[in-house]
C-alpha cells in the first residue's frame, strides 16, 4: 500500500541521515553505505527499496555499469539486440526515445521515491539498468540466475567524462569543481557507486566464477571490436544472430543505430530533455577512448594508474 511504501522511504531517510558523509562532486554531501559512496538524493533510497522489495525473474536482463562507462551505449545495444524482431527500421523506438527511457535505472527511476512503475507487472523479458555494486545487489537478482551484462571503462576516461558531465548539469550558482579536486575525490573512492575500482572488482571476480551469468566487458573492447562483441552479447543473452540475419546485415544495422554519431544527432538526443535539469545532449560528449590524455597531468595519471595497477592489474 501507499502508506507502507511511504513508511519505507521515511525509514531509508532516517538510515541515510546516520551514514558517514563527505563533501562530494556537487552541492550535496555523499554518504557511505555498505562500503560504497552515494549521493543520497540521487538514488540511495531507491537502492534500499530495491534491496527490500525487488522480485527478480530468471529471464530478467541487467545492464550494470560504473557511471560514465558506456551505460547509454550498452542500453541501446542490448535493447537493439533483444527487441530486434519487434520493430522495423523506421519505427524503432531508439530513433525517437533516449536509451535511458528504453532501459530504466533502478535507483534513478524505477525505485526513486515514489516508485514510478509497477515493476512486478512489466512483461518479460524485462531489461533493467543499475550501478549498484555486486555486494549490495538485491539478493533475488543473484538467486534467480538472471543475466547480467557489466560494462566498465578506463578510470581515467571515467573521471574526465564525469567531470564534464557534472560541469554541464550542475547548478550555475555553484562554484566549479576543479580537475584537481575531482582527481582527489575519485582517487579517494568518493565517486557515485564507488570506489570505482571496488565496483569493478566485485563484478570481475563474480564473472570469473560465473561467466554464463555475468558478461564482463570494457568500453574499450566494445569500441575496438564492436561487431564481434555485439555477436557475443547476443549469444550471451540467448538471442544469437541467425545465418540469415547475418546475411541481411542485422548486426551492422544495430551497431549503426546505436553508434555515437547516429544517436547524438537524433532530435530527441540533441534537443530533448528527459531530465528537468539538463538536455539529453549531456549523455553524448565525445565518445572516444583516451580523452584523458588531453586533460590529466603526469602526476594525476600516476596517482590513478597506481591504484588501478594495485586493484585491477589485469583489466586496464
Ligand atoms: P565521454 O564523456 O568520454 O564522451 P554513460 O553512458 O555511462 O553515462 O557514459 C557516458 C560516456 O559514453 C560519454 O563519454 C559519452 O560520450 C559516451 N557515449 C554515449 N553514447 C555513446 C555511444 N553510442 N557510443 C560510444 N560512446 C557513447
Description:
The protein is an alpha/beta fold. Helix content is 47%, strand content 9%. Helix 1 (2-17) packs across helix 2 (40-53) and helix 3 packs antiparallel against helix 13 (250-257). The model has no long low-confidence stretch (mean pLDDT 95). A hairpin with a 2-residue loop joins strand 2 (30-33) and strand 3. The chain starts with a helix and ends in a 5-residue tail after the last helix. The strands form 2 sheets. A 4-stranded parallel beta sheet has the order 5-4-6-7, sandwiched between helices. A 3-stranded antiparallel beta sheet has the order 1-2-3. The chain has helices spanning 2-17, 40-53, 71-82, 99-102, 106-110, 139-143, 155-169, 179-187, 196-209, 219-224, 226-236, 243-247, 250-257, 260-264, 267-270, 298-311; strands at residues 21-22, 30-33, 36-38, 61-65, 127-130, 147-152, 214-218. The chain is globular. Bound molecules: adenosine-3'-5'-diphosphate. The site of adenosine-3'-5'-diphosphate has 21 residues, from helix 3, helix 7 and helix 14.
Mean of residue pLDDT values:
95
How many alpha or pi helices? 16
Instruction: State the helical fraction.
Output: 40-55%
Structural class: alpha/beta
Bound molecules: adenosine-3'-5'-diphosphate
pLDDT under 50 segments (min length 5)? none
What is the H/E order?
HEEEHEHHHEHEHHHEHHHHHHH
First-residue to last-residue Cα separation: 47 Å
Largest sheet: 4 strands, parallel
Strand content: 5-15%
> In total, how many beta strands?
7
Spatial sequence of strands, sheet with the most strands: 5-4-6-7
Radius of gyration: 19 Å
Globally, the shape reads globular
Amino acid at each position: 500500500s501507499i502508506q507502507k511504501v511511504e513508511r519505507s522511504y521515511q525509514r531509508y531517510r532516517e538510515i541515510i541521515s546516520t551514514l558517514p558523509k563527505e563533501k562530494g562532486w556537487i552541492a550535496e554531501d555523499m554518504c557511505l553505505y555498505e562500503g560504497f559512496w552515494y549521493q543520497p538524493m540521487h538514488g540511495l533510497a531507491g537502492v534500499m527499496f530495491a534491496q527490500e522489495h525487488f522480485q527478480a525473474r530468471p529471464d530478467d536482463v541487467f545492464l550494470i555499469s560504473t557511471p560514465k562507462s558506456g551505460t547509454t551505449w550498452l542500453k541501446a545495444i542490448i535493447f537493439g539486440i533483444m527487441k530486434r524482431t519487434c520493430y522495423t527500421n523506421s519505427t524503432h523506438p531508439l530513433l525517437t526515445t533516449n536509451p535511458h527511457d528504453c532501459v530504466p535505472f533502478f535507483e534513478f527511476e524505477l525505485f526513486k521515491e515514489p516508485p514510478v512503475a509497477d515493476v512486478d507487472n512489466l512483461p518479460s523479458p524485462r531489461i533493467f539498468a543499475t550501478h549498484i555494486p555486486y555486494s549490495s545487489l538485491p539478493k533475488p537478482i543473484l538467486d534467480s540466475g538472471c543475466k547480467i551484462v557489466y560494462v566498465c571503462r578506463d578510470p581515467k576516461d571515467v573521471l574526465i567524462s564525469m567531470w564534464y558531465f557534472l560541469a554541464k548539469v550542475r547548478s550555475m550558482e555553484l562554484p566549479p569543481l576543479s580537475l584537481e579536486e575531482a582527481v582527489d575525490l575519485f582517487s579517494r573512492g568518493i565517486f557515485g557507486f564507488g570506489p570505482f575500482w571496488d565496483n569493478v572488482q566485485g563484478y570481475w571476480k563474480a564473472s570469473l566464477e560465473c561467466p554464463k551469468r555475468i558478461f564482463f566487458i570494457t568500453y574499450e573492447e566494445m569500441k575496438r571490436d564492436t561487431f564481434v562483441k555485439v555477436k557475443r552479447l547476443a549469444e550471451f543473452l540467448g538471442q544469437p544472430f541467425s545465418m540469415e540475419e547475418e546475411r541481411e546485415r542485422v548486426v551492422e544495422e544495430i551497431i549503426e543505430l546505436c553508434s555515437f554519431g547516429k544517436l547524438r544527432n537524433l532530435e530527441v538526443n540533441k534537443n530533448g530533455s528527459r531530465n528537468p535539469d539538463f538536455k539529453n545532449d549531456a549523455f553524448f560528449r565525445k565518445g572516444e577512448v583516451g580523452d584523458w590524455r588531453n586533460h590529466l597531468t603526469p602526476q594525476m595519471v600516476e596517482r590513478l594508474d597506481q591504484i588501478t595497477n594495485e586493484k585491477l592489474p589485469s583489466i586496464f
